[in-house]
Design brief:
The complex is a heterodimer of chains A (282) and B (536).
Chain A: H1 6-18, H2 23-48, H3 62-74, H4 76-79, H5 97-106, H6 128-142, H7 162-173, H8 175-178, E1 185-186, E2 192-193, H9 201-210, H10 225-239, H11 256-280
Antiparallel strand pairs in A: 1-2
Helix pairs in contact in A: 3-6, 5-6, 5-9, 7-10, 9-10
Chain B: H1 11-23, H2 26-33, E1 36-37, H3 45-64, E2 73-75, E3 87-89, H4 90-100, H5 105-132, H6 141-163, H7 168-183, H8 188-196, H9 205-235, E4 253-254, H10 255-280, H11 286-289, H12 305-316, E5 322-324, E6 330-332, H13 336-361, H14 377-397, H15 399-405, H16 410-449, E7 451-458, E8 464-469, H17 529-534
Antiparallel strand pairs in B: 1-4, 2-3, 5-6, 7-8
Helix pairs in contact in B: 3-5, 3-10, 4-5, 5-6, 5-10, 6-9, 6-13, 7-8, 12-13, 12-14, 14-16, 15-16
The chains are: A mainly alpha (282), B mainly alpha (536).
Chain lengths: 282, 536
């Protein structure tokens, strides 16, 4: 670059130190700055994001800590530590929300008896308070849909059309699996849509919101909260409240299959005995 | 004032004389009222169908007064709140009006529907009776064919009626009917378009089905039922073999008064049972189904039970589509085989059966005496094979309900149906043939050795033997002389011989008098009571 007398070389070295940095130095400096920026960004990120691997989650409320204790004894074997899920055993619970927990645990479907096509409803293993604790834990763990406060059934006094609109929504969205009468129906390979005859308003709302088992999710974009309440109104007021004007026996509202059985078991049986009786009188 | 004297006792006679003077009715009426009908409980099964048809006509007339067969869209403004304001066809609206506002309307609707189910169920039971007893043999083949046609017409009457209320379930059924028409090669689309007046569902089908349901089909049904009864009347009813009964006579009761009274009573009983069903059991709750929308198909959508076998066959059919690269290309969808070919075969084969059997047996004689099912094992086997096929197909028509309620996989139900449809009928054939042969053999055994008495005798050498009561005379050694089988019930218990308890008499059994008329050709023989004593 320049001449190479020793003085100049010394001066050049000096001036190089004082003047423009050398290439290696520039590179070193850039690396240090990049490292600092990374450390800063990573540090900020770590500071502001809840750690999935946090050993001692100080953010959990008291209720959620109770829930975590229950979770760690009853749910962890399938859903894994901190609800991360275990492959081929149980799905991750991050983001499923308390609504899902309240439905699955509150109806006894969880904990599951065994791995099968679909969890059966059975007597709940946890009481209401424990279910709430579990729900709170899962909610604080990963967020997700929650049941709204307030009544889940439309007030027919102030909104008399809710029943008919609910019926229409029910027929469009629900009957293809649960049937016109809400008696339930079969799906493929052992899966099924359960009967709605004993479902509470909370269970119905939570089921629509979270899509448990094989049910699709009816989020608030598909069915607004008001429409969900209308459907619940139709199910609880019309279907569950024994509105069978046609007789003492509704034959399960399964349609022609039980009606066909009834005509043979009741009609033909009675009349065969009648004909035996009449022909016997000779 | 002079009172006119009216002798009440003479009044009917005078009235009848007056009628006869004017219309000369006595001679034809005498023949009619004295006509003899053989009496057996199984001969009353066909009457159930006849009487439910009468109930169908009466209740159907009531329903037509309120039903509006129109597909015009109207808003609902009736008393059923859960549909208020919903747009629906006038047909569905008037069916709801009939169910909720018309006094007794829902009862009449249910009466009509239950009567329809009973009509079809009793036809099946009646056909089974006719088949298994060989009542279809010459000269009654044509009446058997008419019977099969009556079932087919009832099938279509039921289907059109099921479609009329235009609710969600009946629309789904119509959709399937349209799909079946579309499977017909070449003519399918044309046929469907002609029947629905364009694309499914169109706006005409309810009006067209209405005319078919209230006029055309019932008219043909009425004509065929009249022919069916007229032929029975002309050819005289078959009878069971028995004392005094031959192929040339008819033993039974006169039409008047006893037979007519029994029939009147039985009509009341049938009407009563249908009314009981209509009042107690809810059927076809159309208000839950909503108006028909093509997008709304409920799970567990089934046709009525007598159409379910076809639905079942369609459900079981594997997905075998045939493509024909000819012209623009044609295809035969898998549904064509069960729904069109299957339905055709299931109605033509039974119709041809009387001639097939006669040809096989080289039997050209006329038969007026029935055959006990056990005496023709092959026929029973074929009948059981057909019934099993029908039953498996019908059950498969409801396989989703069964899968759900009994916690079975729906896929397993489908495969069980497919395998069952092929394996169970031959199995039923084999089992029923073996049962018939076993029963035959037991009859012959009793005729040869006598009735088992339940008395064990010890012989001097220490051997134990059961004492048998011979039905007829014995030879010099005390062994019964074997008796001919007479085609009728062989007594198999001591009380049937009057030995242990009063002879058969009771609520459900005919009170027979063994004293003057022998029950079986052999019963009149000397009863060997001594032998029973010796066993004690």
């Amino acid at each position: 670059m320049t001449s190479d007398t020793p003085a100049r070389r010394r001066a050049r070295v000096f001036s190089r130190r004082r003047g423009a940095p050398s290439r290696a130095r520039r590179r070193l400096g850039a690396a240090v700055r990049m490292l600092a920026a990374l450390v800063l960004a990573g540090g900020v990120y770590t500071a502001f994001t809840p750690g999935a691997f946090a050993e001692d989650n100080v953010q959990l409320s008291a209720v959620a800590r109770e829930g975590k204790a229950l979770y760690d004894t009853s749910c962890i074997s399938c859903h894994g530590r901190d609800g991360q899920g275990v492959e081929d055993r149980g799905p991750s619970l991050i983001g499923v929300g308390s609504a899902s927990v309240e439905f699955q645990v509150g109806t006894g479907r969880m904990p599951m008896t065994r791995q099968e096509a679909q969890a059966e409803q059975k007597p709940p293993q946890f009481n209401d308070a424990q279910t709430e604790q579990l729900g709170q834990y899962i909610q604080e763990l990963g967020g997700g849909p929650e049941l709204p406060d307030g009544p889940l059934v439309a007030n027919l006094e102030s909104d008399p059309d809710a029943l008919a609109r609910g019926g229409e929504l029910f027929r469009v969205n629900c009957t293809s699996c649960h049937g016109f009468g809400g008696g339930g129906g079969a799906l493929s390979s052992g899966k099924f849509a359960p009967s709605l005859s004993d479902a509470t308003a909370e269970e119905l709302y939570a089921a629509m919101l979270t899509g448990p088992q094989n049910m699709p999710v009816f989020g608030d974009n598909q069915l607004t909260p008001e429409q969900k309440k209308q459907i619940i109104t139709y199910i609880s007021v019309q279907l569950q409240d024994d509105k069978d004007p046609g007789g003492l026996f509704n034959l399960g509202r399964y349609g022609p299959s039980t009606e066909g059985m009834a005509i043979f078991l009741v009609g033909i049986t009675l009349l065969v005995f009648t004909s035996l009786w009449i022909a016997g009188k000779s | 004032m002079k009172r006119r004297k009216i002798d009440l006792a003479e009044a009917p006679k005078n009235f009848a004389k007056g009628v006869d003077d004017r219309f000369q009715a006595a001679t034809p009426l005498r023949g009619l009222l004295n006509k003899v009908f053989p009496d057996h409980w199984s001969f009353l099964l066909g009457e159930i169908a006849l009487f439910s048809f009468i109930v169908l006509l009466l209740s159907g007339v009531f329903l037509t007064l309120f039903f509006d067969p129109s597909m015009k869209e109207v808003p609902y403004d009736g008393s059923y709140l859960a549909l208020k304001g919903t747009m629906m066809s006038a047909a569905y609206e008037s069916s709801l009006h009939l169910s909720f506002e018309v006094r007794g309307g829902l009862f009449m609707r249910q009466l009509h529907h239950w009567a329809a189910l009973l009509f079809m169920a009793s036809i099946i039971v009646h056909m089974a009776r006719v088949f298994f007893t060989g009542a279809f043999r010459k000269p009654r083949e044509i009446n058997w064919v008419i019977g099969v046609l009556l079932f087919l017409l009832g099938f279509f009457a039921g289907f059109t009626g099921y479609s009329l209320p235009d609710d969600g379930l009946s629309g789904t059924g119509l959709r399937i009917a349209s799909a079946i028409m579309l499977t017909l090669p070449v003519i399918g689309t044309w046929l469907s378009a002609a029947i629905f007046g364009g694309e499914f569902p169109g706006e005409l089908i309810i009006g067209r089905f209405y005319i078919a349901h209230v006029l055309l089909i019932p008219g043909i049904l009425l004509g065929l039922i009249a022919a069916h009864l007229g032929i029975v009347f002309k050819q005289k009813h078959t009878q069971w073999p028995g004392p005094l009964r031959t192929n040339e006579n008819v033993v039974g009761e006169r039409m008047f008064p006893r037979y007519a009274m029994k029939q009147g009573g039985f009509f009341m009983a049938v009407f009563g049972v249908i009314a009981l069903l209509a009042g107690l059991f809810q059927i076809n709750p159309i208000w839950l189904f909503g108006p028909y929308r093509a997008a709304e198909v409920s799970s567990a959508s089934q046709p009525d039970f007598y159409v379910m076998f076809m639905d079942g066959l369609v459900r079981l059919m594997p997905n075998w589509q045939i493509y024909i690269p000819f012209g623009d290309g044609y295809s035969i969808p898998p549904m064509f085989w069960p729904a069109v070919v299957g339905l055709g075969a299931l109605f033509t084969l039974p119709m041809a059966y009387p001639w097939l059997e006669a040809r096989k047996l080289k039997d050209k004689r006329s038969h007026h005496l029935l055959e006990r099912p056990r005496d023709n094992p092959e026929r029973v086997g074929i009948g059981m094979m057909a019934l099993t096929f029908f039953l498996v197909a019908t059950i498969s028509g409801g396989n989703d309900v069964i899968a759900d309620k009994f916690h079975i996989s729906l896929n397993a139900m489908t495969w069980a149906g497919r395998i069952g449809l092929l394996l169970l009928p031959p199995l039923a054939y084999y089992i029923s043939v073996r049962i018939c042969l076993g029963l035959q053999q037991h009859d012959r055994q009793v005729l040869a050795h006598g009735v088992e008495t339940g008395i064990i005798k010890r012989l001097p050498n220490g051997q134990f033997v059961e004492v048998h009561q011979p039905l007829g005379p014995v030879d010099d050694h005390g062994h019964p002389i074997p008796l001919e089988y007479a085609g009728w019930v062989v007594p198999k218990k001591m009380n049937r011989l009057g030995a242990l308890a009063p002879a058969i008499k009771g609520f459900f059994y005919p009170v027979e008098k063994p004293a003057d008329i022998p029950v079986s050709p052999a019963v009149g023989g000397p009863a060997k009571r001594e032998e029973i004593k010796s066993g004690r």
